[in-house]
Design a protein that fits this description.
Layout lengths: L2 E7 L3 E8 L4 E7 L5 H15 L4 H5 L2 E7 L2 H7 L6 E6 L5 H4 L24 E4 L2 E2 L5 E3 L3 H14 L3 E5 L8 H13 L4 E4 H4 L5 H32 L4 E5 L5 E2 L1 H6 L7 H15 L6 E6 L4 E7 L2 E2 L1 E2 L2 E3 L2 E3 L3 E2 L2 E3 L5 E5 L5 E7 L18 H7 L17 H16 L3 H23 L12 E4 L3 H12 L3 E4 L6 H7 L3 E12 L5 H21 L7 E11 L6 E5 L1 H6 L2 H16 L10 E12 L20 E9 L4 E9 L8 E3 L2 E4 L4 E4 L3 E5 L5 E5 L3 H8 L4
Parallel strand pairs: 1-4, 4-11, 5-6, 5-9, 9-10, 13-23, 23-24, 30-32
Antiparallel strand pairs: 1-2, 2-3, 7-8, 11-12, 13-14, 14-15, 14-20, 16-19, 17-18, 21-22, 24-35, 25-28, 26-27, 26-28, 29-30, 31-34, 32-33, 34-35
Length: 703
């Protein structure tokens, strides 16, 4: 039997989805090991082998592909534990990392401080050189500055170097000279050269992204080198792929060079999975939410395409690489409940993580968390959490909530737990608004795909808050991102700056730049063993109205570009600008300006197939386990509700709320306003009861 494995390392749990060549799949979870994530990863593989009653070596030899989303680079930035980095930049611009774009993030807060740069000022070395915006040399590069910087970096024990000169996107010669000298002096240093890594306009965006890559590069390189060695020692001979922030995967060797592309890589698999789980029900659009132990991620998919941004940030540091437009907030099962100075109840963003974890884990945690509140409210079974592998201590949860929340607020235990549940749900609903309403979309028009171990417990009230009528809870919801990784293609993004008015377009130059990017893409994908007939290119242009600051990305077909029809290009730009910013200057005849050319190159991979189940009627009684007391938020009271075994529910089974559906890795709380139907792929569709006929028609179930 041959296997493929998706692995998502989270702040609390490391999730695994094991798929077999016969189409079956298995879910595994182990507690994460933050000090060395590869330890938890290998523990998960050992657990799989143990369940199959074979040795790890025997098991891993049958694994064809491992797709891995890593938080190594993200954690390095958030904890400021990246490599000691030196920066070479144009003389007079060494403070660009601090000046940023010259815009205060909190405009009316005079005490607001800029984020501290990853490279301290004494390690930002100014180099005498200068190009103009066209790439013409104004000042030749002073090579002695490069030699002097090399001596300084050696004395300071620098582990990585970033090179970013003004206007190097137009002509890379000066950066090439500097890079050659640095490589001669430091043959083993981790080096990022902006004209190779991100040859695009906007100096702050480019220098920040280049520095980020060097800052996290050695960390990721060491981690992947260690992981590859552990897998090799265990007998792994398959393919390891690393998840990127753009929703695609790459080989470990390329990931090491483009380390910044893995920042926020774990959550990027969620929208990919969302597309697959909704498209089988005929949806083109959806919202995805993923509530794990530490964080909550929300994303929007339109026309089976996740929203992409090139203006992302991580901990207030600009990252100008294409990445999925995901909103992440500190709201998970481990989010800590606390009372602020004004006497208001807050949830998160601090998390109890996997160690010591929620108070009810009985691992030494004493602070009340979302999971503790869920236990008190009856949504979780203290004897069945994680299938019984992690028994929950009700008394410790009760003590933590009473001491830290209930008593300070003058509430009883249930009021405090219900308040914690309500506050975290409102926080997550705000995250969904961020990716939908603020981007011009009505969340009520999208099915909500619910994921994460804690997500289905809270989904009903999040959806009710947003008036979303339909939710889809995938069979693999608890390891949603791990599943998405196995559904991802290899993806590489390329960019070239070409600044010109649209009515003065040099079509020959535009096409030659796209050809240059295509050749680079073929070379990369060939090194990853992707055949030419499995490669697809997506072309797009960054454009704006002349004299405006912000640009809009517009996708174009290759044939449309080859025609050079300026009117056609403009006709695609105006409506997109109107959707994003609420107005268009088409009637005023305002000219358009081209800024960047972008190419997304996709190497298609083999995907796991959904297995269909036979129809088994509406009656879910065969899956009924028992009844237990659960808190109904809108009624503000406890009631006896039926508890169903999710592993025994079959296609067509209908569960009317209020109810609880338990699986080994997650629990679904069906609020009284909703009901659940099981589709033929084993997923749950949870819907407002008034929508039952519509849902049955979509699922092909007769009333």
């Amino acid at each position: 039997m041959k296997y493929r494995i998706g692995i998502d390392v989270g702040g609390t749990f490391t999730d695994f989805l094991l798929t077999s060549e016969d189409g079956t799949s298995e879910i595994y979870k182990v507690l994460s090991t933050p000090d060395d994530p590869s330890v938890g990863l290998m523990k998960g593989l050992e657990e799989m082998a143990k369940i199959k009653r074979i040795s790890l070596r025997e098991f891993i030899q049958d694994v064809e592909t491992i797709v891995h989303g890593t938080t190594v680079t993200t954690n390095a930035v958030l904890t400021r534990k990246g490599a000691k980095t030196g920066l070479l930049t144009t003389k007079g611009l060494r403070d660009a990392l601090e000046m940023r774009r010259g815009i205060r993030e909190e405009q009316y807060n005079n005490r607001y401080l800029n984020v501290e740069p990853l490279v301290p000022r004494h390690l930002r070395y100014p180099v005498e050189e200068r190009l103009d915006y066209k790439g013409d040399v104004l000042n030749e590069i002073k090579e002695s500055d490069i030699f002097d910087s090399a001596a300084l970096f050696k004395e300071e024990g620098v582990e990585a170097i970033a090179i970013c000169f003004m206007n190097s996107f137009a002509r890379p010669d000066h950066e090439t000279i500097a890079a050659k000298i640095i490589k001669e002096k430091y043959p083993d240093i981790y080096l990022t050269v902006s004209s190779e890594f991100l040859p695009s306009i906007r100096f702050y965006d480019r220098i920040s992204t280049t520095v980020l890559n060097s800052y996290v590069g050695p960390i990721l390189k060491n981690y992947l080198t260690s992981l590859l060695q552990k897998l090799e020692d265990a007998g792994f001979k398959g393919v390891l792929l690393i998840m990127q922030s753009n929703g695609g995967v790459v080989s470990p060797e390329i990931a090491m060079d483009y380390a910044a592309a893995t920042l926020l890589s774990g959550p990027a698999a969620g929208p990919v999975a969302g597309i697959e789980y909704t498209s089988v029900q005929g949806y083109e659009d959806c919202l995805t939410i993923d509530m794990g132990g530490t964080s909550f991620d929300a994303a929007l998919i339109k026309d089976k395409t996740p929203l992409i941004t090139t203006e992302g940030e991580i901990d207030r540091l600009r990252l100008a690489l294409p990445m999925l437009g995901i909103v992440t907030i500190g709201a998970g099962g481990g989010s800590i409940g606390w009372v602020d100075e004004g006497g208001l109840l807050r949830m998160g963003p601090q998390s109890a993580g996997s160690k010591p974890g929620p108070a009810c884990y009985d691992l030494g945690g004493e602070l009340p968390t979302c999971t503790d509140a869920d236990l008190i409210l009856g949504y979780l079974d203290k004897d069945f959490f994680a299938g019984g592998k992690i028994p929950l201590n009700y008394e410790r949860a009760k003590k933590a909530i009473k001491e830290k929340v209930a008593n300070p607020l003058g509430m009883d235990l249930v009021e405090a737990a219900a308040g914690m549940y309500r506050v975290i749900n409102v926080n997550m609903a705000s995250g969904v608004r961020e990716v939908s309403i603020k981007r011009g979309h009505d969340p009520r028009e999208f099915p909500l795909v619910v994921a994460g171990g804690a997500g289905p417990v809270h989904a009903g009230m999040i959806a009710f808050e947003l008036e979303i009528p339909i939710m889809i809870i995938p069979k693999e919801s608890s390891i949603f991102c791990a599943a998405g990784m196995l559904m991802s293609d290899l993806k590489h993004n390329f960019v070239r700056t070409y600044s010109a008015r649209l009515d003065d377009l040099d079509l020959k130059k535009l096409l030659s730049l796209f050809t240059e990017m295509e050749e680079e893409a073929f070379k990369l994908l060939k090194s990853e063993h992707i055949p030419e007939d499995s490669i697809e290119h997506i072309y797009s242009l960054d454009m704006r109205y002349v004299k405006q600051y912000h640009e809009v990305n517009v996708e174009m077909a290759k044939e449309e570009l080859e025609k050079g029809d300026v009117g056609l290009i403009a006709s695609k730009f105006h409506p997109e600008h109107n959707r994003l910013y609420g107005y268009s200057l088409e009637e005023e005849g305002t000219p358009l300006e081209l800024i960047n050319l972008r190419l997304l190159s996709i190497g298609q991979t083999k995907k796991p197939q959904f297995r269909e189940e036979k129809y088994a009627q509406e009656d879910p009684s065969k899956a009924l386990k028992k009844k237990r007391q659960a808190y109904l938020p809108l009624k503000r009271t406890f009631e006896q509700v039926p508890v169903y075994d999710g592993h025994k529910l079959r296609h067509g089974n209908r569960v009317e709320g209020p109810a609880i559906i338990e699986q080994v890795n997650t629990t679904t709380f069906v609020t009284p306003e909703y009901s659940v139907l099981c589709d033929k792929y084993g997923s749950y569709t949870m819907y407002l009861k008034a929508k039952e006929i519509e849902v049955k028609e979509r699922l092909g179930i007769s009333s």
